[in-house]
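Internal ticket #5521
Category: modeling
Description: The requester needs a full-assembly model to guide mutagenesis choices. All entity lines are attached below as received. Residue total reported by intake: 1062.
Assigned to: D.W.
Attached entities:
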Amino acid sequence: MKTNIFIIWLCSIVLLCSCRKEESIISSTSTGVTNGEKTESIKGFFLLNEGNMGSNKASLDYFDYETGIYHKNIYAERNPGVVKELGDVGNDIQIYGDKLYAVINCSHFIEVMDVNTAKHITQISIPNCRYITFKDKYAYVSSYAGPVLIDPNARLGYVAKIDTLTMKVVDTCAVGYQPEEMVITGDKLYVANSGGYRVPNYDRTISVIDLKTFKVTKTIDVAINLHRMEIDKNGYIYVSSRGDYYNTPSKTYVIDSHTDKVIEELSLLPNSNMTLCGDSLYVYSTQWSYLSNTNTISYAIYDINTGRTVSRNFITDGTEKSIKIPYGLSVHPETHDIYVTDAKDYVTPGTLHCYSASGKRKWSITTGDIPAHIVFTHKQLKDL
Amino acid sequence: MSIRMKNNFFLLSAFLCSFFTVVYAQETKTMQDTTLSSIHQLDDVVIIGVLEKKEVIPVQVLAGETLKKLNVYSVADAVRYFSGVQVKDYGGIGGLKTVNVRSMGSHHVGVFYDGVELGNAQNGVIDLGRFSLENMEAISMYNGQKSSIFQSAKDYASASAIYMTSRRPTFKNGKKNNLNIGFKFGSFDTYTPSFLWERKLNDHVKLSLSAEYMRTSGRYRFSYSKKDGYDTTEVRRNGDVEMLRIEAAAFGEIKKGEWQAKMYFYDSQRGYPGASVREEPGKYHHQDRQWDNNFFIQGSFRKYFKSWYSFMANAKFAYDYLHYLSDPREDVTTMYVNNHYRQMESYGSMAHLFAITQWWSMSLSSDFQWNTLSADLVDFAYPERVSILQSAATSLDWKKLKIQASILYTYVNDMTKKANAQAGDKSVFTPSFILSYRPWDRHDLNFRAFYKKVFRMPTLNDLYYTFIGNKYLDPEYTIQYNIGGTYSRDFQNKWFCRIECQVDAYFNQIDDKIIAMPTSNQFRWTMMNLGYVEIRGIDASICSHIKIANVNLYPRVSYTYQTAQDYTDPTSQWYGGQIPYIPWHSGSFILSGDYHNWSWNYSFIYTGERYEAVANIPENHAQPWYTSDISISRTFHLKKFDIRATAEINNIFNQQYEVVQCYPMPGTNFKIKLNIIL
């Protein structure tokens, strides 16, 4: 019958021109960005791309200083057996010993990899985990998902203590609301509580945990919506307050860890992200105001010795104008090269910009979606 | 990134899709609608099954038996068979399903139920997955607007429109009652009893009562695998749905006119399966839930008073309630969110049609609409919106050449309880122009063209959603240019009885596109008028009727080619990229047929490769998918009643695919239906 022939013809046409191929692992992309350079102890860095929430697109990039090659999206091809790649929303990355730890926020675990190969070793389950820091063979992870008491809306966060030998959570300690970054000095761990879920009742405290007893010993009242933390050689802690996006602007506060008191409010140093290198605190800020519907962006350097903001724009060649949404910030401890990532619209690949210590752009490279967290490595990543 | 963001965004963009605003205006089919004979053509909605005749605007229809035979549960599943349509489907029965016509975005699709626009002032999107086909008689999709000029101003107010027409009672051989009791049972532990009772009070008034209950666990297996890599099979959880729908309607005829009244009630609760991302297997399960209540009443009246004057009026009141709960006591990974949203809509419309000569008519329509939204969100603005729409249209019909022109004036005024939070008034004129030409009387070959400019208002969420809304938003415009043709021919006494085809080529622009933009961090987004998109495409469809002995076959093929490119930012590396989820090629094929008491259907859908983001790179590449569904049914005529039994198999090749990234679709599934018809 003609119809049948017609149907067969139609189906075969459709099948021929359109077949699904077996889904393959997406390979990394290698791009030469420099001619390679001699290195001291730092051989390269890993960059963790967050990926937009619900898209399972966290990804890992690696830059090698000696070859000058930028390797985009290395995790999947090095770990083809890991179901659904790196996961959903990479929120922090650190190296401790010979292991690379990536905090995957919305996948609710810490991905532990071999720092030499970026190969999966294990994963440590922690719901809604945010940041990670280390001391004496223990890892400490902040998490929003503390115990739920009578009022589910007043749910504290916690800090989990992980034994890096067994990779098991050995203890937890409830802190403030929605804890973010942490710093450690001596036997004290400081964690910044944001309370970002409790608008307009933001948290305004830092919790201080005694690492010997793993109990909160002090709570320091600072300002609303705390986020970032850095500690300098003198024991001063710099903490950022995000403000409320309306009338309270973002600021930076300084806490003396010897007295656990706020010693200074840097009201002219709005702070979205910061990194400490030597005596310089590099701070950028994208201050969003719902009143004016505008972003105000600044790139500052604060001198910890003089207590002054010595630069209001550490990018000196005017190229900062091409950055839409600065997101990640890092400074090479040896060369003082500055790395700023541009997250753009969050749903397309971002860009990593490298600036010399004097603030001139050296190179730029396309990354994964929402490039955010950089960690420098002393061990060169082995080829596959 | 935070769970708050997730919740906000889910609520904002995806799952608040249930505001029914309804006006009644019976859909009539032909261009003659503009003349006075229209009133007596109302019943022609019952026939069809083929493409539309003599429409001067591109329209596609699924109706009657063809619609009944399709193996689909909801209207969203059915409209996938139209060319130029993409359905965004989060999978399963409970998953959100929204319709995007010619890549202009789901906010630009007007959805009308019994002639009546279903609105959602809050987020502007209708979840067509919530409308089952149980009581549906016809689904038509118009590009541009319905080419009748005797219609409410709202009918002119969207870039494309889907009209769902529910069943109208008809009574055979002096019967006074019709009863249809149905029971469906299928995969995902789905049970659907339904009930329809129609009553003829007298020659002028008919009543109908329809009810449907559905319950499903929404559980299904899905797999992900990579070549030389992982291979995993998981089960979708928390996709359960329980819903009850009750509709009552009265249909009346008066001298040279008619009226209709309708009540609609929908009650549901459902879980959110969430995105399927990497997690420790079996460790955490989504537990967040949503409850919806939708209620509306609507009435309509239409009368032909004089040979030169007809009048139509519509009125409606709708109330919608939504409750979303995410509780960390159930799922430790989430944060506590417990929000209630309430919307109300009141609507009234009047339309006047003046037949000046045999070939020239004009119309004037005025619509008034009032919306309110309340929500227990921090700092909520409590917006109210008054919209006034006024349209003027004219139609010229010289047999060979038909011309229609219309202009729509829209005025929108928002008020908020919070001081100075409201957006400024909007006052906009938008035109459309339609032309059709039939060169030969002997051949049913028509050429057509249209131009239409229209906009969508920023939704109440776009403007006022706490922390995301931006009251400075402007309307988002679409401009459409279309040229095309239709051809149909009947063949007498041959096995090949009929063929119809239509082809259209189009160019669309979307300007001031409203998009979500991140602000300083992932916690805080806002809406902005940033986008500019150009769409170029071709839609084609063919259907025919073939009769061999006693076997009837109705093949139907549709195909779409589209480029939809983002030209927002010339400095972007991805400038000109194909916008997310728009395939270059897509198409469908249906072959339904019947033989004595048997009928069957085979349907095939193909969606070509596409990208999940405007960066068209391997990381965002999505594979083509195509599914085949078959069904067979048999009617048994017993003494007092008929029984119709149907068996369906969907996705027979068990293809594992996603329509939306991280939302896997079901593999092979089954359904059995039984209907007792009295």
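Resolution: model delivered.
Comment from assignee: Confidence is low (pLDDT under 50) at residues 1-53 of chain B.
Ticket closed.
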